[in-house]
Design a protein that fits this description.
By secondary structure, the chain is of the alpha/beta class. It is built from 10 helices and 10 strands. It is globular and about 55 Å long.
């Protein structure tokens, strides 16, 4: 924890020395707790990290994406998230708050090429291999959702154990709206969270769901004016329980999810590969970029 003078004292390791920080470039916590950074800032010449992790004295880790405003992802960012989850556990965290900087939680992959996220239309296999590491992580995760969780961003939110939605949050599995098959294991996670009929409805239509409707169908577990603060409250409550018991309970309750997610992403990648070559997908991406209704021709 920060001392009154503003410096940070690291806990001693088993050998009696000071344990250095392990991960994360940013050291400023953006929630209301006095968090302990897990790594000092990089040299000035180093680029900023796209993911930061901060562990507080109450064993809650805040893992934050820094690609505002839309937080588009690619395989590298998902790998950084998985590394952050692992580092949080190594530093003693017992629960994770997943959040993001900027207007939107996560808009998934950027098919328009307008952001610095790497285009994945050459194939999502590397992305999904890294996503599997999120499903295999051992700590409970609470996603704090502001703005949009769209496409693969919805898949990222659904990889968490809980979702807290803020005012104006919106959720959409909008793949069909751009002529594409769903991905990021939504084939497995969405029916498990919502039930089959609600999942089919969202996947077939690609429609947008408000925070209020998300809460009514179970997609959002909590509504809060400050979703990050509410997510942190829940994470602290979980972290106050027996850590060995929580991990064992979570492993039991999520038993088989990793295998189902892997099977789902294998099928999703194959179907996406077929649809990427279609005129409908090209039209869907153009229409999305031009903010108009697509004119699909079924070819």
């Amino acid at each position: 924890m920060p001392e009154r003078g503003g410096q940070h004292r690291w806990p001693s390791d088993a050998a009696g020395g000071n344990r250095p920080p392990a991960y994360g470039a940013r050291t400023t916590a953006q929630d209301n707790c006095k968090d302990r950074p897990m790594e000092s800032a990089p040299p000035e010449s180093a680029p900023p990290k796209d993911v930061s992790v901060v562990v507080a004295a109450d064993y809650v880790a805040t893992v934050e994406i820094h690609r505002p405003p839309d937080n588009f992802f690619d395989a590298g960012l998902i790998a950084d998230l998985a590394d952050a989850y692992a580092a949080a556990g190594e530093q003693g965290a017992r629960a994770i708050v997943l959040c993001s900087e900027g207007k939107n939680f996560c808009a998934g992959a950027d098919f328009t090429g307008r952001s610095r996220a790497r285009n994945i239309t050459g194939g999502p296999h590397e992305l999904y291999e890294q996503a599997m590491r999120l499903f295999e992580a051992s700590l409970p995760v609470i996603a704090a959702v502001q703005g949009a969780a769209v496409g693969g961003g919805l898949g990222l939110a659904c990889s968490a154990d809980f979702r807290v939605a803020g005012p104006g949050a919106r959720f959409s599995a909008n793949f069909a709206r751009i002529g594409l098959h769903q991905g990021f294991a939504l084939t497995a996670t969405l029916p498990a969270i919502l039930g089959q009929q609600h999942a089919w409805n969202l996947l077939y239509t690609g429609r947008r769901v408000s925070a209020e409707e998300a809460a009514s169908i179970g997609l959002a577990d909590y509504l809060a004016d400050d979703p990050r603060a509410r997510a942190r409250e829940l994470a602290a409550e979980i972290a106050g329980a027996g850590p060995l018991a929580v991990r064992a309970i979570r492993a039991t309750m999520r038993d088989g999810l990793s295998a189902r997610a892997r099977d789902a992403m294998r099928r999703e990648a194959a179907e996406q590969g077929k649809l990427w070559a279609t005129a409908d997908f090209a039209e869907g991406v153009r229409a999305f970029a031009e903010r108009r209704t697509p004119n699909f021709e079924g070819r």
